Amino acid sequence: MDRVPTRAPSSPLRTPVAAAGWSGRARAGLALFAGVLLVATALSSVAQEQTSSKPFEPQVGQAGKDVVWVPTPQSLVDKMLEIAKATPQDYLIDLGSGDGRTVITAAKKGLTAHGIEYNPQMVEVAQKAAKAAGVADKATFEKADLFESDFSKAQIITMFLLPWINEKLAPKLLELKPGTRVVSNTFTMGDWQADETATVTDDCTNYCKALLWIVPAKAGGSWQLGEAELKLEQKYQMLSGKLGPTEITDGRVRGTEVSFNVGDAKYTGKIDGKSMSGTVSGGRSGSWTATQK
What we know:
The protein is α+β, with helices and mostly antiparallel strands. It has 2 domains: 74-214, Rossmann fold, CATH 3.40.50; 221-292, Lipocalin. The protein has 5 helices and 15 strands. It has helices at 16-53, 74-83, 101-108, 120-132, 163-174, and strands at residues 91-95, 112-117, 139-143, 156-159, 181-185, 196-199, 209-214, 221-225, 228-235, 238-243, 246-254, 257-262, 265-272, 275-282, 286-292.
């Protein structure tokens, strides 16, 4: 916009004609500016309308609540479900479900699957994809914060999150029903070591490793095993301790399955609440039962 002159004309007296001349120029300039502003506003409104009507398309690397979105390669999705031994009887929950591919793949295999995703636009993308794939009845999605969500009913948990998020989730995951399978794309869970890992090479160049954890039953404490006391210390799925005066070795819990060695005798069995039982092989043979004190 041109600046309106502020210096008085050289003549000491301003005539009505001169005054009228300056006023006319100002009015013309203001009218021109108003016209330009009106056109610019109209064009801006059209552009905004076109932008808002354009369907949302997810972009690799787009920011999320705690992570950026990077889709899991389809070959790894298949491997994650494979090492989890997914069956149609399982209920799967995917934490941070993104475009829904893990949930949809599970649903195609007959599972009932649910995705938890913080971005509402990604939820819509996933819902549309599930409908297009014909599995909307088995593949559902919700906009939610995974730290505030209940996934206690799942037999399988899948996720592609950062290590610090996995670590933050670990205490909650360890409280799930023993035997629940947790599968992560690439990233670990602090000092809770994975029970199994698998890597794919076909159609995958980045993020090609699957890690599986089996939520262990609680075995720590004192147990009465026959005439001897079995003292167990548990850290995640690993066991240490003594049967009577003898140190146990290779102690491990995998879901409800328990195993440990006492000398050359190998104990294997299952934990059922405050009791566990099984068989002995190696240096001894027979059955055993223990009751928690």
